[in-house]
């Protein structure tokens, strides 16, 4: 399927590895011009080169912390008029809410609520004026089905979800959609390190814990980041303009409900 977005410009945040990288790769395959970001410069540049080699897309790498004002300014300077914005950042650490002070909460809200909101604020009026815009926020299945030890993530991402629910209805008239993509378990570095922690706690090997988690899922496996990237690209497609304000859950059917 041709998504009809060749030649469009995209910012993909937190994209040197994992889900962000997969989204950038899928958009690159569609002929989208990319600005990608992460904090570690050499890994980011290596990813930019891989995307160029695999897709032929023009890729600009901007190494910075997207959760800071200065970081966002440098990404926006590299792509002042994006047609597509994929919001992403590292997730907050797990823990017990009794241990979290104001600074922990502010860091989580900064990264997983305010950073996407400020990037939307900086870009959405240009999208409205140009009558095309696609915003995809990478959030988490934990927004729909909370994971107790990820309270910082559950809380901060729920704030973003509420904001998007309102704004997305205001921008749709001008062909600007805003959707959230909610990953369940996907095979990334972050996921692998979580599996290791769970394995250590349970006194089993990494492979045993991975098999347990895979077995728990209706698909009998963990998600492949490529599948996530392709769904993100679909939401950014020219023909996805009638789909907005949605929370698209990609968890292999793990969330058990009729609809
Ligand atoms: P990952 O494999 O660890 O990749 C994270 C990427 O984000 C890296 O490129 C990292 O590069 C970059 N990054 C982190 N903090 C950043 C910052 N402040 N500024 C700019 N770039 C930053 O993680 P992932 O699994 O793809 O997860 C992506 C998001 O999805 C996270 O918020 C995570 O909580 C959420 N999620 C993932 C899963 C899953 O199963 N994978 C499930 C639910 C939710 P640098 O470290 O060099 O900056």
Topology (SSEs and partners):
Layout: E1 9-12, H1 18-29, E2 33-38, H2 41-55, E3 59-63, H3 69-78, E4 84-87, H4 102-130, E5 133-138, H5 151-171, E6 176-183, H6 189-202, H7 206-216, H8 225-235, E7 247-250
The structure holds NADP nicotinamide-adenine-dinucleotide phosphate.
Largest sheet: 7 strands, parallel
As residue ranges, the low-confidence spans are: none
Q: Mean pLDDT, nearest integer?
A: 97
- Report how far the terminal alpha carbons are from each other: 27 Å
Structural class: alpha/beta
Question: β content, as a range?
Answer: 5-15%
Please tally the β strands and state the result: 7
SS element count, helices: 8
N-to-C series of helices and strands = EHEHEHEHEHEHHHE
Bound ligands, each once: NADP nicotinamide-adenine-dinucleotide phosphate
User: What is the CA-atom radius of gyration, in angstroms?
Assistant: 18 Å
The general outline is: globular
Helix content: 40-55%
Q: Give the spatial strand order of the biggest sheet.
A: 3-2-1-4-5-6-7
């Amino acid at each position: 399927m041709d998504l009809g977005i060749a030649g469009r410009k995209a910012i993909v945040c937190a994209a040197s590895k994992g889900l962000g990288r997969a989204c950038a790769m899928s958009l690159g395959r569609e002929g989208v011009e990319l600005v990608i970001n992460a904090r570690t410069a050499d890994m980011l540049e290596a990813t930019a080169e891989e995307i160029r080699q695999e897709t032929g897309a023009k890729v600009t790498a901007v190494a910075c912390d997207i959760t800071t004002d200065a970081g966002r300014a440098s990404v926006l300077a590299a792509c002042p008029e994006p047609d597509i914005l994929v919001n992403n950042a590292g997730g907050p650490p797990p823990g017990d809410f009794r241990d979290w002070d104001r600074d922990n909460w502010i860091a989580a809200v900064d990264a997983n609520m305010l950073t996407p909101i400020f990037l939307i604020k900086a870009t959405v009026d240009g999208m409205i004026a140009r009558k095309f815009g696609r915003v995809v926020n990478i959030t988490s299945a934990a927004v729909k089905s909370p994971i107790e030890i990820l309270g910082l993530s559950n809380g901060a991402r729920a704030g973003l979800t509420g904001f998007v629910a309102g704004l997305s209805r205001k921008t749709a008239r001008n062909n600007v959609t805003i959707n959230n993509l909610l990953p369940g378990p996907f095979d990334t570095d972050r996921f692998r390190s979580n599996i290791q922690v769970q394995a250590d706690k349970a006194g089993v090997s990494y492979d045993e814990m991975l098999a347990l988690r895979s077995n728990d899922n209706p698909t009998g496996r963990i998600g492949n980041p490529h599948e996530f990237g392709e769904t993100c690209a679909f939401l950014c497609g020219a023909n996805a303009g009638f789909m907005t304000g949605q929370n698209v859950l990609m968890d292999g059917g793990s969330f058990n409900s009729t609809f």
